[in-house]
Amino acid sequence: TAKEGENVASVVAIDAMGNESAPVMRKWELDTTAPVFTNSEIIDVLNHGSVTSYKDFSFKVEATDKNGVSYEWMLNGGKQSESKNAFSGAVTEDGFYEVKVVAVDAVGNKSKELSISWTYDTKAPVEVAITGTPSNGTKTNKAEVKLAASATDDVTAAEKITYRWTFNGTESDGSALNATSKEGENTASVVAIDEA
User: What's the predicted TM-score (pTM) here?
Assistant: First the structure.
């Protein structure tokens, strides 16, 4: 059985009279050690599992091996042609994306896999609604304003949607607006903002 590293085998032929040929030698190196990543995760500008509206991505890794290293990148399971330690591109459709990479040495040993995933989201929340008092378009003798906002989104969970209110020209954040009306016409509006 060969050992890891350099191996040498030699043979001589011996005839019936005991005469030996010159030795014939074969040397080879056995490499069963996979490359090792020098960083434990893909270097990027995205946070793993994040939601973003940025379509461009760029990732980088570093691995070492005594026999050199190339890289196999995969985007959503599809092998990419890039074999260097960096991979970049752009996504065009909203949805979940995952990039995986392995380092491969000259004899085909593969490292452990590193991966990063994110969700690309360009659609704003929908079904934005305001509930509470006073009702839209009414006249009232009560100055107290107690309004709440709600919305839905294809990607962002309802509890992670944030809201920006404008009440008579003043902005505030939060899912509720508690304020005091001024004499005359008052206007409250809200914008829903998802994680992207």
Answer: 0.72
